[in-house]
Design brief:
Distance between the termini of chain B: 17 Å
Distance between the termini of chain A: 27 Å
Shape of chain B: globular
Mean pLDDT of chain A: 94
Bound molecules: flavin mononucleotide, iron/sulfur cluster, FE2/S2 (inorganic) cluster
Strand order of the largest sheet of chain A: 6-5-9-7-8
Shape of chain A: globular
Strand order of the largest sheet of chain B: 2-1-3-4
Order of helices and strands of chain A: HHHHEHHEHEHEHHHEEHEEHHEHHHHH
Mean pLDDT of chain B: 95
Radius of gyration of chain A: 22 Å
Largest sheet of chain B: 4 strands, mixed
Low-confidence stretches of chain B: none
Order of helices and strands of chain B: HHHHEHHEEEH
Largest interface: A-B, 62 and 48 residues
Number of strands of chain B: 4
Largest sheet of chain A: 5 strands, mixed
Strand content of chain A: 5-15%
Number of strands of chain A: 9
Oligomer: heterodimer
Number of helices of chain A: 19
Structural class of chain B: alpha+beta
Helix content of chain B: 40-55%
Chain lengths: 435, 168
Amino acid sequence: MRLLLRNRDIPDLHRLSVYQANGGYEGLKKALAMKPAEVIDEVKASGLRGRGGAGFPAGVKWSFIPQEEPIKYVAVNADESETGTFKDREIMEGNPHQMLEGALICAWAIQATAVYIYLRGEFWDIGDLLDGCIAEAEKAGFAGENILGSGWSCPVYTHLGAGAYICGEESAMLSSLEGVLGQPRVRPPFPAQKGGGLYREATVVNNVETLTNVPWILTEGADAFRAIGTEQSAGTKVFCVSGHVPRPGNYELPLGTPFRELLVDHAGCDPDNIKAILPSGGSGPIVPGTDEVLDTPLSYEAMQGLGTILGSASIIVMDNSVDMTWVASKVTKFFTHESCGKCTPCREGTYWLDKVLDRILEGEGKPEDVQLIDNVAKNMAGTTLCALGDFAANPIIHTISNFPDDFNAHVQPKPEEEQPAARPARGGRRRRASA
Amino acid sequence: MSLHDPRYKARIAGHLAKYPDKRSAVMPLLYIAQEEYGWVSPRGIQEVAEICEMDPTQVKSIAGFYTMYSEREKGRYWLHVCTDLPCALNGADIFYRELREYLGVEDGGTSADGLFTVEHVMCLAACDKAPMLQCNFRYMESLDMEKMKAWIEERRAELEAAGQGQGS
Ligand SMILES: Cc1cc2nc3c(=O)[nH]c(=O)nc-3n(C[C@H](O)[C@H](O)[C@H](O)COP(=O)(O)O)c2cc1C
Ligand code: SF4
Ligand code: FES
C-alpha cells in the first residue's frame, strides 16, 4: 500500500496536471473549507508521528503554535543527511506536489505567513524541480497570493544548505536559514514558541515524509490512516535499506511490518547471513541480526523495546564478514566530521574516539583502549547541547556491548605465528541483484 | 566580472526577495560567488558581504563551515566521492583508492592536468546506488572504475578537442 511513493504507480506524478488528475490538491481544498483548529484536530487524531527521527506527534506539535501571533512559519526539513537515508529524495523527485500540498495544509492549520523548504545542498537538482513545481502551484492558485480565493496568502521558498549534517537538527537548520552559523540553539524557547523559531517567530519544523502524509489524511480521514500500522505507529513508512543487501532501495510498508519481511522477503537478504543491523543510520543503537530482532515489528514502540530506535528508518545491513570495530570507526568518523564544535564533550569526545579507534584498527591498541573509548562515549551521552553527542556515543557503546569479540580480536596480544586481526575494509564485493 | 555584474542581478534579487532579512541570502550568494570565481575567493567574500550587509569575517566563517563551498582553487571537475558506511560496504573505499591512483592524487588533491579535484564525503543520500559521487554537485551513481576511466578520458578528450590544452 503506497500513500507516499505513489510515483511508483503513477508515471509523471511530478507534473501538476498528472498530480491533479490523481486527486492532487483535494486535501488542500478540503483543509481550506475547514477551520485551522479542525485541521490540527484531524492530524492529531490520525496519530501521524514525525518521520525525521524523533517520532513526535505532528498534530500535537502544530497545536503548540500560538494562534494570535501575526507572523508564523513552516520550515520543511529536507536536509536528509543521516547515513543511509535516501527516502525524502525519492519523495521529492517522484511526488513533489504531495509534499508541497502537505506543507501548505500545515501552513493553513497554523495560519503561516510563509513556507521555507531547507534542502541539503547536494539536492541542487531537486531544488530546481521544486522551484518549478512551486511556480506551477502558484499559477494554479494553490500557493502564493490569495490561495484558492480564501484571502490567505502563503509563499513557498526553497533554500539550499551547503553540506553540513548538523543543519538537519531543527534549531541549527533555522540558524542556517537566517544566515548565521548552522549550529544548534539552546532550548527553550523551542521552534514552535515565539522567540525560538525562524527569525524568532513561532515555526513548525517537519520532515518531508511527515508532511507528505498529510494530504492523504485530509482526503481519506484520520480513521483510515489509523487503520494502517499499529496502535502507536499509524500509517506507512518509507524504509531505506542499504549495505549488504541484494535489492537495496526504498520500501514503503505499513509500520509494524516485521524486520524479516522487509529484509528477507522484500530486500532479498539471507537471514542466516545478517550479522548486524543499524536501524536508524549511524545515529541509533546497533542490533545483532538474531531471530528475535528479525521477528520484531518495525514500529516506534517495538524498536524501543529492542533498545534501539526506529528513527528515520534508514536500515543498514551488515553480513557475517563485517568487522564491527571497523563499523564503529566508520560511524565515528562521520560524527567527528559533522560535530559542529559548539560543545566540548562532543567536539573533543568524537576526536578522541576517532583517534583511539584508528589505533585499535591499526593493531596498535591495548586491551584498555576498548574500555577507554567505552568510557569516553558514556561520558558524552546526555551532556551535549544537541542529540548529535548521543548519536556519536551510540556506535561505540552498542557495538562494544553487542560484539565484544570484534574489538578484542584487535587488542589481544597474539601468538607469534598468527596473522594480524581481520583487516578493516571489506568493500569490493557488489552483491546486488541489479549490479 | 564580479557579482555586481548585470548577469547576476535578477538571480541575486530573487534570493534577496525570499527572506525578510538580507543576511539570509548569504548561502545562495556564496554559491553564486563560487560559480563566478571557481571558489569562494576573498573578492567573492567581500562582494557577498557588501550585498548582504554583513561583516566579511562573518561571511568567511559561514563559507568555512560548509563542505560545499571551496576555500581554495580547484579543478574544473570537483568530485565528491561518498565513502560513508553503506557505500563502503559496497566497495566505495576501494573505488575511491583506485580513482585516486588513476588520477595520481591524494585525498583533496587536484590532478596534474588541473582538471579533477577529488575529495571523500559523507553520505549523499544515494546509498542504494553505491559506489557513487557528485561531480560539480550532479549525481553519478552505480559506478565502477571502468566507467570512471572512460568518463575521465572523455573529459580530457573534450578539452583537447576544444583546443584549450591544459588547466581550467
Ligand atoms: C544531529 C541531528 C540531525 C538531524 N537531521 C535531520 C534530517 O536530516 N532530516 C530531518 O527531517 N530531521 C533531522 N533531525 C531531526 C530534527 O531535529 C527534527 O526533529 C525534525 O525535523 C522534526 O520533524 P518531524 O517531527 O516531522 O520528524 C536531526 C536531528 C539531529 C539531532
Ligand atoms: S552536541 Fe555536537 S553537534 Fe550538537 S551542538 Fe554540541 S558540538 Fe554541536
Ligand atoms: S553512504 Fe554513500 S550515499 Fe549514503
